[in-house]
Amino acid sequence: MFFTRSFLAAALTLAATAHAGPYAPAAGQAGSTAIIQTSSSFVGWATGYLDYQPGPNVDAGFQTPAKALGAATGDATDVVVLGDAGRITLTFGSFITNGAGADFAVFENSFSDTFLELAWVEVSSNGTDFFRFPNFSLTQNAIGAFGSLDPTNLDGLAGKYRGGYGTPFDLDILKTVPGLDVNAVRYVRIVDIVADGTALDSLGRSIYDPHPTVGSGGFDLDAVGVLHATPVPEPSTVVLMLVGLAAIALLGRRRLRRAAIALVGATALPAAAAITTFDDLTLAPGSFYLPAATTTFQSGAASFNHDFTDFGGGCCWSGWSYSNTTDTTTPGFTNQYSAYAGSGNGGSENYGIAFLGSPTVQFDAPSIVSGGYFTNSTYAALSMLNGDGFAKKFGGASGSDADFLKLTITGWNATNQSTGSVDFYLADYRFADNSSDYVVRDWTFVNLASLGTVSKLTFGLTSTDNGPFGINTPAYFALDDLTVTAVPEPTELMLLAAGLAILTIARRRCGSPRRR
């Protein structure tokens, strides 16, 4: 956690002179910083999520992280609940930037101005290094499960305002923090505060809020709204613009400048994103793809390998298939084609199913992959939850075995060099508190933009349950809504260079003295 010395000094001064509380009052009162959900100031909302780790005291019906995406609703039940010390990271389609005043706002679902459940807010530019906003609480004592808080005693904490009103956060506070680009924030992490007095604010004082609560315990996240943003530029667009603008600087005549600007602008238009939904592939209801042959299939801008070896009886395949089966209760190999979510992402029909071997996604052209939605297969999920004839129950008999199933997604460029990897835990039982252990059921967005420009993706699974022939855990996972943006080919640069060369020649001709 980081905050400047001057900021600490100001906070200490305010704290020393506080009577009714030195910070902004409740929504609707003079001096409040609350931002109503319908404000026209919002330019965007969270588009994806990562690392949802619900803590204790959350009913299953409140563990739907997709409810934190999109615009705030103000509906007290349309939220994802974090539970005690739970957390979630939200991602955005654009960079959150440091503009004038607040740059984003966090919405909770409180029904009043004084029943306030609080959370820390952290931001990151790279998805790895997170930095917490300075936060201050002047509440002196524990308040119990139904106690009240004075919002004028709270600052820098999400949940300060009632439902329908966002708590604002200004990136300018963190502008001197090493490792954070306040003009390129892509990740916002919300961390519930267990307000029994053990959690401390930036000055080392205990933070209190209603505690303990059950069923929907902890912070209830409605949405995160963006107030200042810039689009994420494609690398090729930057290159084209730099080349074009350098050439424009050399052109003297106004008419030629206009033509060159038009040429550069045309070639720098961003490519449209293609989403692999698998719904463009035909399937009968309740069925799956199994052609009994080694082949590939295409969805969107992506090609998927389907490998088949005939051992008789229609066995056996690896790589990729696609399915619309919805069985979430039948254990075992006969139910290997069902996603544990019970449908495709967002209730769609088709989705992809992968089984190791070597599942590979190949792209039509070098591309940037924004990310995709992943979940377990029913076969793998029920095996991890209950065990079967081949694999152990995760957690073991005591529930304390530190088991996990990790999916590793690796990018490869056109010369078959790795561009990096992203890990996503399909199940994780390594928590000190067993109630935090989980097997992924909901479709969960995994951000893959850090892989850069890729020609293909490969996938691997790592489990703590292994035997002589590899992992015992069923080596399956499901994929949907993979979002891909093609990177312009080098020929576009050639066309740009040719166009600028023509303009240069035209300039020379225009500048030559006319013959009499």
Give an overview of the whole structure:
- This protein has 516 residues and is of the alpha+beta class.
- The chain contains 5 helices and 31 strands.
- The strands form 7 sheets. Strands 3, 5, 7, 8, 12 and 17 form a 6-stranded antiparallel beta sheet that branches.
- The radius of gyration is 27 Å and the shape is globular.
- The relative contact order is 0.13.
- The N terminus is likely disordered.
Report the biggest beta sheet as strand number plus sense, adding barrel if it closes: 6 strands, antiparallel
- Count every helix, treating DSSP H or I runs of 4 or more residues as helices: 5
Fraction of residues in helix: 10-25%
The shape, in one word, is globular
Rounded to the nearest angstrom, the radius of gyration is 27 Å
Distance between the termini: 77 Å
Content of β-strand:
25-35%
Unreliable runs: 1-19, 234-238, 251-270
Helix/strand/pairing class, anyone? Answer: alpha+beta
Mean pLDDT: 84
The count of strands amounts to: 31
List its traits.
516 residues, alpha+beta, 5 helices, 31 strands, globular, disordered N terminus
Outline the secondary-structure elements.
Blueprint: H1 5-17, E1 35-36, E2 44-45, E3 48-53, E4 80-81, E5 87-96, E6 104-107, E7 119-124, E8 131-132, E9 136-137, E10 154-155, E11 165-169, E12 185-192, E13 196-200, E14 206-208, E15 220-221, E16 223-226, E17 229-231, H2 235-250, H3 254-267, E18 273-276, E19 295-299, E20 302-312, E21 315-323, E22 351-355, E23 360-375, H4 378-386, E24 404-412, E25 418-428, E26 438-439, E27 444-447, E28 453-463, E29 466-467, E30 470-471, E31 476-486, H5 490-511
Antiparallel strand pairs: 1-11, 2-16, 3-5, 4-15, 5-12, 5-17, 6-11, 6-16, 7-8, 7-12, 9-10, 13-14, 18-31, 19-20, 20-21, 20-23, 21-22, 22-31, 23-27, 23-28, 23-31, 24-25, 24-28, 25-26, 29-30
Helix pairs in contact: 2-3, 2-5, 3-5
